[in-house]
Amino acid sequence: MTKLTSVSALEALREDILSRRDPKKTKVSVCSGTGCRAYDSEKVIDSLKAKLLDQGLNDKIDLVTTGCHGFCELGPVMVVYPEGISYFKIKPDDIDDIINETLSQGKVVDRLLYVDPEGNVITKEHDIPFYKHQNRVVFGSNQSIDPENIDDYLALDGYKALATCIGSLSPEEVLEIVKKAKLRGRGGGGFPAGQKWEATRNAPGDVKYVIVNADEGDPGAYMDRSILEGNPHSVLEGLLIGAYAIGCQKGFIYIRQEYPLAVEHLDRAISQMRELGLLGENILGTGFNFDIIVHRGAGAFVSGESSALMSSIEGKVGEPRPKYIRTSISGIHGCPSDLNNVETWANVPIIINKGADWFTSIGTEGSKGTKIFSLVGKVNNTGLVEVPMGMKLHDIIFKIGGGIRDGKKFKAVQTGGPSGGVIPEDMLDLPVDFDALDKVGSMMGSGGMIVMDEDTCMVDVAKYFLEFLADESCGKCVPCREGITQMLHILRMICAGEGKPGDLELLEEIAAMTKECSLCALGQSAPNPVLSSLKYFHAEYEAHVNEQCCPAHVCKDLITYHIDPAKCKGCGKCLRNCAVGAISGSKKEPHVIDLEKCTKCDTCFLVCPPKFSAVTKLSGKEEL
Amino acid sequence: MSQISVTINGEHIQAEEGMTILEAARGAGIFIPTLCHHEQLESYGSCRLCVVEIGTGERKKVVASCLYHISEGLVVETETEKINGFRRTILNLLMHRWDNIPAILLEKYGAKSNERFIDNMTYCILCGLCVRFCHEVKGANVLGFIGRGTIRQVVIFPNQSAKYCASSCPDEMECLHYCPTGVISSQYYGSRPADGQALPHAAPVCINEDLNILEVLERVGHV
Fold this sequence. Notes:
The complex is a heterodimer.
Chain A lengths: L6 H13 L6 E6 L2 H5 L2 H14 L6 E6 L11 E4 L3 E3 L7 H11 L8 E2 L5 E2 L6 H4 L17 H6 L4 H9 L2 H10 L12 H10 L6 E6 L8 H8 L1 H15 L3 E7 L3 H17 L3 E4 L4 E10 L8 H8 L23 E5 H13 L1 H5 L9 E8 L5 E6 L4 H8 L9 E6 L5 E4 L9 H6 L8 E6 L4 H15 L5 H18 L7 H15 L3 H5 L2 H9 L1 H10 L11 E5 L9 H5 L5 E2 L7 E2 L9 H5 L7 E5 L5
Parallel strand pairs in A: 1-2, 7-8, 7-11, 8-10, 12-16
Antiparallel strand pairs in A: 1-3, 3-4, 5-6, 9-10, 12-13, 14-15, 14-16, 17-20, 18-19
Helix pairs in contact in A: 7-11, 7-14, 8-9, 8-11, 10-11, 10-12, 11-14, 18-19, 18-22, 19-20, 20-22
Chain B lengths: L2 E6 L2 E6 L4 H7 L23 E4 L6 E4 L10 E3 L3 H14 L8 H7 L19 H9 L5 E4 L6 E4 L1 H11 L14 H6 L24 H7 L4
Parallel strand pairs in B: 1-5
Antiparallel strand pairs in B: 1-2, 3-4, 3-5, 6-7
């Protein structure tokens, strides 16, 4: 690749790439993101590649190995363009049919199509409810891009926004656009990105830094990972634009070592940029100099906190520092440092290309644009979904997510990861944006959305998140370290049936102190899972404490297993599967569980044929 | 440095610009409790006993006075019901790591141990005074933290100890005098732990044992 020395050279390269591409040509896009890889998508791709070559079709058909398409539930995912035929759960054995039917004759392979819960077969991607209700501004181009090939990004107007900024706009003008777009940080707090940039720009000092926070760590959240794996250049372009607006020559990307594919794609993208002269000195002949250092984090959750992240980049222990002076004024090595999350940066080139007015036309009064959520848990369609801010929780979970698995009842949705809270059913009409979630005691966080059904115990959920935080707290300040320790201890006692009157008040007392007195955002938000579940599911806590009853039948110490003699047909399945020999009974006679021997492993409950459903769990007053 | 005026507990006070709230308050004879603060060392902000409320009305917020720098016209309250409640909770929690917290503090804030709390009586409140003294004053880095979250603890790094203890502190282990709980001096006052030995409050895993740092890390699951 020759270095591009001017904006017009970049445009000439783009023309050249586009002139070699035929939009009518058949293109097969196969997901090779981490989710689909877990379903062996690489074997599918290898097989497809080899067979296209064998049959001499490799010139007639473009095969694009892409990052995440979003519908991870049904991976490996494939889309055939220009028709937009979507295939799911593809196995290497399906490749012959795909080639012989679809790619050679334009026929659809029915068995690989999406079938909705009502049994309707849907051929085209944009007709599938999961995709239809989304607005994939940031994430949509993933399926047209081979993340290892910069040409694909350039073909989609890649680095055009950068060229516009450094070629014809002043840094102040760029800053104004981002401020006008009212872009808010997608990493957690939702702080206005433009204001943050401006504070860093105006802070005294010659050396300033821009940083990408790619230390995504909320359990179940993986949107930043998928952007970096699937479209790394979008983040890099945003970072360069920010650097230009703020006045930085050096940037850092703080990425988790546990994201090997994202690191690989990022490293490759950066070296491609260097080869093209999009990094280094005098970028596109405009006199703008910028370079990037990739810093791999060692996996501490707290390092996603801005001051801890900066300590870690400095080579120190990733522990938060008091932030009464903002990092935008004094960050890495005391220099003004602007930190934004992956998704925030990825929004920047789009805002420049399409304009602030276009961006503010999407979303709500206080939250503009779209947000990507990791929709996981007991929902039918798990995956990554991008929706306009302000979409109702109900629509995300039921229209896009396809409702609750196995016909169960919705109980709660947890947003914002360990720092967020649970939201009950009567709040499903809540429009999802930064302020609305805050108001109900949860938060947007980085976009984790864990759906829970009726079989979930909310006390157990609070305990789970505190266990996570007890491990991940840095341990520096007393409110977080000791507060979490004791709240967790109390929750463990409650779940073990050792709860006592006063425990809930005690939890509230510690939570209130931890929330206000902790040193960093981790501690300040750590009580949220406890406080929000106490607020909306108080009766469930009370049942645990006062009646030693777990209404959801989750807490092992509070439940017993029982075989209903009226329903048991004596098929012997539970008896054969019980690992401790706790079940007895003759063939075709009702079986009985010896509670002395029973270890509550749940096996009998799971193996009892649904047509009998004779094994039940009992708790509290339900006990026989 | 120029003088600026701040209001603490309704009292107008002149203080030097650049001071923390804690310095300004103590300069004016106003008591704010601390456990991890030492004039000789950088503020650290771990015990959070020094929290105070700043601002007025809707904009009131809780900050750590040892870290928050004063500005002209700042309004500070050091003993509100809310703040004293927080201090009581903090002391209640700490009592399960250190059961001889000075009675004067416990009485002032009405703190008492709670039978619902789990005991973790290490006698070390992880204030980091010994660690910071060794680092900031002696430049020796013999002491440090290992572990994260609830298993964080103070340890002595054997290689550093062999290298620096004798030259940095020729007469006695000076860090002992910085320990607010007295856990170091209670067992080791005036005597130097042998090389490779952890400080007693790094209990339970490394007390009185000859360990090298790799073994220490191994024991707490860090290798």
